[in-house]
Design brief:
single chain, 416 residues, alpha+beta, seven-stranded mixed beta sheet, 11 helices, 25% helix, globular
Length: 416
C-alpha cells in the first residue's frame, strides 16, 4: 500500500462519517439510533480507516470476543465493518486493510484466530479465510409439522415475556448453551444490547421481537426463542405469512421440543423460517421430515492468524501425531512445517523439519478448524495432498467434532 491512502484508527469524532461510508459501500442507510448502538459496541482502538486526505474511504474493525471451538473456548478477533467507498474500489485498499489487521494481530501476540461473515463468498479466500460453518435456511410448512408420538416436552410451560423480563433469563440460557456449542461466541452486555435492539425500520415489515421462554417443572428457564411474524402474500395472492425465528437456544431436549411445539402451534401463520444448524434436530422430531425444506449457505469463515497457536488451542477427537506442510501466501510467517501432537487435553503444535504427512494451505486449515468442513472432503477436491500413507484418514478423523459447528447470529459476525 502506498502513502496515497494512509491507515490509522478512527477517532470518536470521525466514527459517524466512517460508519456511513461503510454503510454506503453496502447500499445501506443507518439511522442515528443504529449508529448509537454500533458506537456503543465498537472498540475504536481496534478500527482501521483508509483516508484520502481527511475523508475515510475504507475501513475494517475487530471485536474482542471468545468463540467455542472443539474442546475449548478461544479468544477470537471478530472481523467486522469491512468496506471500501464505491469511489475508491480496485485500488488495493481492502488488501491493505486486511494485511494491516492480520499483521497487527500476529506481531502483538493477539487472538490466534480471526473470524468473519462475508457478504460475498469470493472475497476472503485470498486473505487466508476458509468457510468453517454452514447453515440450513429452513422453510417449514406448519400444517405438515406433526410431532412423533411420545415426544418429551418436559411437562414445563412456554411463556411470552417482555424484553426486560426475558433478557436476564435468556442471557443465562445462552451462556449455558454456548460453552458446549461449537462456533457460538460470548456476548458481553454491549453485544446483547445490539442483538436485542429492535427499531421498527429494521424489522423488514415484520412485527417487533417476541420473547418466548421455556420453564421446566422446577421453574428453571432452560430455553428460549426470539421471533417475529411477517404478514405477507406472494404475487398470486397465496398466504406466505411466516414465523421468523431470530434465535433459538435450549439447554435440554425437552426445552427444545417444547419451544418448537409452541412455535408450530401459533395460529394463522402457515410457515416458519429459521436459519439452523446443519445437523438441526428438528426433522427427527417430525413424522414427516419433508415438512422442513432447507437451503445450505456458508456463514462463519475462519482465519488462523498463527497456525501453531491456533492448532494448539483446540482439542481433537482422536489421538494424533502428524506433520503439516502449510502454505500461506498472505501471512507468510505461517508458511512451513508443523508437528501437531494431540492426546486428550495435551496438545502441542511446533515447527519442525520432519517430513510432512499432509500438504495444505492456511485457508484449508481455517475451513477445517471448527470440525465442520472436513479435511477428507478438501482432499477429494484436490486441495489437501497426502504425503504419507494414512495421514489423511487420521487427521480428518481427529479434526471432526460430535456436532456440526453453527454460528447462531446470521451472516455477520459483528454486533452480536
Amino acid at each position: 500500500m502506498t502513502d496515497a491512502y494512509p491507515l490509522r484508527p478512527v477517532s470518536d469524532g470521525e466514527f459517524a462519517t466512517w460508519a456511513r461510508m461503510i454503510a454506503n459501500a453496502y447500499g445501506s442507510d443507518w439511522s442515528d439510533e443504529e449508529l448509537a448502538h454500533m458506537r456503543a459496541a465498537i472498540e475504536l482502538d481496534r478500527t482501521i480507516a483508509a483516508f484520502d486526505g481527511n475523508t475515510p474511504v475504507g475501513g475494517a474493525a475487530l471485536y474482542t470476543r471468545s468463540l467455542t471451538v472443539p474442546g475449548a473456548v478461544l479468544p477470537v478477533a471478530g472481523v467486522t465493518w469491512v468496506g471500501v467507498a464505491p469511489t475508491h474500489r480496485r485500488r488495493g485498499i481492502l488488501t491493505s486493510l486486511m494485511r494491516e489487521q492480520l499483521t497487527g494481530l500476529h506481531e502483538s501476540g493477539g487472538e490466534p484466530i480471526a473470524a468473519l461473515g462475508p457478504s460475498e463468498a469470493a472475497i476472503y479466500g485470498r486473505f487466508g479465510y476458509g468457510p468453517a460453518t454452514f447453515a440450513n435456511q429452513l422453510r417449514c410448512e406448519k400444517r405438515s409439522m406433526l410431532f412423533r408420538p411420545g415426544t418429551d416436552y418436559g411437562g414445563g410451560s412456554v411463556l411470552l415475556l417482555d424484553r426486560e423480563a426475558a433478557r436476564p433469563l435468556i442471557e443465562k440460557v445462552y451462556d449455558q448453551v454456548r460453552t458446549g456449542s461449537i462456533a457460538w461466541p460470548d456476548r458481553a452486555e454491549r453485544f446483547w444490547d445490539s442483538r436485542l435492539a429492535d427499531p421498527p425500520h429494521s424489522r423488514g415489515g415484520a412485527t417487533s421481537l417476541r420473547y418466548a421462554v421455556y420453564r421446566d417443572r422446577d421453574g428453571d428457564t432452560t430455553g428460549y426463542a426470539l421471533y417475529r411474524i411477517n404478514d405477507a402474500r406472494d404475487a398470486l395472492g397465496n398466504d406466505t405469512t411466516a414465523v421468523r425465528i431470530v434465535e433459538l437456544a435450549a439447554a435440554t431436549p425437552q426445552a427444545y421440543a417444547a419451544l418448537w411445539s409452541f412455535l408450530v402451534g401459533i395460529d394463522l401463520v402457515p410457515w416458519i423460517e429459521y436459519e439452523a444448524a446443519m445437523d438441526e434436530p428438528l426433522p427427527h422430531l417430525l413424522t414427516d421430515r419433508r415438512a422442513v425444506r432447507s437451503t445450505v449457505v456458508d456463514r462463519l469463515w475462519v482465519r488462523l492468524v498463527d497456525v501453531d497457536r491456533a492448532l494448539a488451542g483446540r482439542r481433537y477427537s482422536t489421538p494424533l501425531d502428524v506433520v503439516l506442510d502449510v502454505k500461506d501466501d498472505f501471512c507468510r510467517w505461517n508458511t512451513g512445517r508443523y508437528r501437531l501432537q494431540a492426546e486428550g487435553d495435551a496438545v502441542v503444535c511446533e515447527r519442525t523439519k520432519d517430513p510432512a504427512g499432509l500438504q495444505l494451505t492456511a485457508s484449508d486449515l481455517g475451513a477445517a478448524f471448527l470440525g465442520g468442513t472436513t479435511i477428507a472432503s478438501l482432499a477429494s477436491a484436490g486441495l489437501v495432498r497426502e504425503l504419507r500413507s494414512g495421514a489423511l484418514t487420521r487427521t480428518a478423523r481427529a479434526f471432526r467434532a460430535d456436532r456440526e459447528p453453527f454460528y447462531p447470529a446470521g451472516w455477520a459476525f459483528p454486533a452480536y
